[in-house]
Amino acid sequence: MSGFVLALDQGTTSSRAIIFNHDGLIAATGQMEHRQIYPEAGWVEHDPVEIWDNARQVIAVALAKAELSAKDIVAVGITNQRETTVVWDRATGQPVYNAIVWQDARTAGHVERLAAGEGVERFRAITGLPLNPYFSGTKIAWILDHVPGARRRTEQGELLFGTTDTWILWNLTGGTAGGEHRTDVTNASRTNLMDLRTLDWDAEVLKAYEIPAQMLPEIRPSAGSFGLGSDEGLLPGVPVMGVLGDQQAAAFGQCAFDPGEAKNTYGTGCFLLVNTGPEVVFSQSGLLTTVAYQLADAAPRYALEGSIAVTGSLVQWLRDNLGLISSAPEVETLARTVESNGGAYIVPAFSGLFAPYWRTDARGVIVGLTRYINKGHLARAALEATAYQTRDVLDAAALDGAVLKELRVDGGMIEDSLLMQFQADILGVDVVRPVVAETTALGAAYAAGLAAGYWQSLDELRANWREGGRWVPSLDRAGRDRLYGQWQKAVQRSLDWV
What we know:
There is one protein chain. By secondary structure, the protein is α+β, with helices and mostly antiparallel strands. The protein has helices at about 50-65, 110-115, 125, 135-145, 150-155, 165-170, 185-190, 205-210, 245-255, 310-320, 330-335, 375-400, 415-425, 440-450, 460-465, 475-495; strands at about 5-10, 15-20, 25-35, 45, 75-80, 85-90, 100, 160, 180-185, 195, 200, 220, 225-230, 240-245, 260-265, 270-275, 290-295, 300-310, 345, 365, 405-410, 430-435, 465-470. Strand 10 (about 195) and strand 11 form a beta hairpin. The longest helix is centred in the C-terminal third of the chain and has 25 residues, at about 375-400. The mean pLDDT is about 95.
């Protein structure tokens, strides 16, 4: 089929535009990083205007590299950092505050107030999620409570909320001149405000959070019509036909369409998704219940998710805060200067621990230090922390009945073969990556292309998936258990700090 699909991947550290052909292969890419803003300890923000400016630039770069114009693009898919919260003025298009990022922990006190009496499970039967600063609900409430006049202006219909997919979509489709204020079921399911079964905002939950319904976007299926690119933009008249939160998009790009199929994405954080089919399944082991995807008018598909806050961002911390490396890829080279972690473990609980612990009182620790430890050991311990945290969530998934025979992986960190081999070793199962590792953008493209008729079926997408690498365990069970036992001791040392 002629034409191409463009995916806009608005991530935690950068925005990328990737153009895919009918075989699911990359024709061109544009990418720009945006600033990470840390006003206080535990606070993380982004500038929404910078994100939108970058989005426009990466679209232009990708089109130029591929020597294409908007007429060559059949459809656009958007994928995004989930939970990150933007509130803006519908008349001016200006944010009233910086975007509060999913990693931000400033609303722990608000969570405690909401949980008083009924506990953090207060809304789990409705939303699938525990009360936690991670999700968008308390971030919205914080902005309404702390930006002068914001609550009054919201009640008067002047302010809008969206995760970054909605912010991008609104601007892409016209902004103040009639931009579409919409999101999809996967992103809505990460706010802690949506009923998993009705796929609509829940009035009881909104009342508890004191969030006016009029500021929230319309919820639509992940694959379907979201609007047209504005005449003043780079993609005039091009339909936006797919929106997925980044982790659900990665699972879609990995073709994890059916119950029991799973993926693990290694990025700023690390996220395991296991498809559970059309039934809502509640974890007994600390995992989240979320929407996996919804195609047009079909029933939604759900998933269990293990969310890890800090993986790739720990490598960034070694680079930016400690100066141990000058670029992220150097961490593998440094880690290979030693044969093991030397007994050192890093638990990167910079803003608490996510799944399966859900401890906002945890903080990062480095344990097992001796005079023998050098920067190579710390680099290795940082990489191994990602693998250990992944085992934490996979063990939790196994307790919920989801035992994986192999793990499909994607994300930037899978280029680190030392990490991937250790991941296979500590799990005791094969770790497999696809030929096209950009599965987050690919998933958004697939959703958009399906809705536009560019691809005809899920089976057609499955035929595009090809194995690009495999790591086989080389560590015996006794060795795995010994190393993991030390990790579990290290985790205990990180608790009860706040």
